Amino acid sequence: MRLNDLLGRRVLDTHGDVIGGVADVRLVQDGPMLVSMQRALRVDGLIVVENRATRLFGYERHVGPELLRRLVHWRLGEVWYLPWEDVDTITADAVTTTHARPDLHRLEDFARY
What distance in Å separates the CA atoms of residue 7 and residue 20, rounded to the nearest whole number? Predict the structure, then answer.
């Protein structure tokens, strides 16, 4: 599977209710050393947005002018971070998590990066 195949895919909670859609994939470069003398990338988690027909511009994080961030958040709805270990199944049209919607972590609650 290519990472691009995950983008836009619906995300379902443990009860089968739609949470939103995959807007981005977070990678961490801490894998084994490659021939190019760089570490391999691994998937750390998924960024899930409530209104899945939108694109991220970086303002969903703690960057940029306050007014612009508020406008982006209004358009996106809720934005969650879904750790890769919390992904239960991936099918042709959806990603299912092991948690219910209220148990998901808001992206804003994570350390600023």
Answer: 11
Q: For the whole model, what pTM was predicted? A: 0.80
The predicted-structure confidence for 64-107, as pLDDT tens digits, reads as follows: 777 877 777 777 788 899 999 999 999 999 999 999 999 998 88
Residue 91 · residue 112 · CB < 8 Å: no
Q: 3-class SS at 105? A: strand
Query: What does the alpha-carbon distance between residue 34 and residue 36 come to, in Å, rounded to a whole number?
Result: 5
Strand (E) or helix (H) holding 106: strand 105-106
End-to-end, the C-alpha distance of the chain in Å comes to 27
Average pLDDT for 19-26: 91
Task: Tell me how long the chain is.
Answer: 113
Query: Torsions phi, psi of 24, nearest 5?
Result: -160, 160
Distance CA 52, CA 48 (A): 8
Reading the block at residue 14, the tokens are 């443990």
